[in-house]
Amino acid sequence: MTIQRFDTGPRMSQVVVHGNTVYLAGVVANTTKGENITKQTQEILSIIDGHLKKAGTDKSKLLSANIYITDMKNFAEMNAAWDAWVSPGNTPARATVEARLAAPQYLVEIMVTAAK
Fold first, then answer.
1. How many structural domains are present in the chain?
2. Domain span including residue 35
3. pLDDT given at position 1
4. What is the pLDDT of residues 98-114, one digit of tens each?
């Protein structure tokens, strides 16, 4: 089976496709970093939509999601943005954990796996 990689850099690829499975690296906010978790989550989910499209799939085919937030007090706000975005009836297996992220302006990071 071939492996396709998109947006590849010296350290990692943003998207890796192997067979009919699409793996995304953790995604953080670009333009909304430092803003509230709702805005960051919305931007991240938009970026994820773009990555999935590039790989030939979409959010209705999500298999799993790992969400990292810096403070569980923001859990409900992040969930509101997630719930507005996720494909009804096609919700993935998901874990959400509190973690310190790479830089203090990031409040959330999301990593997903999808089928093609």
1. 1
2. 3-115
3. 79
4. 999 999 999 999 999 99
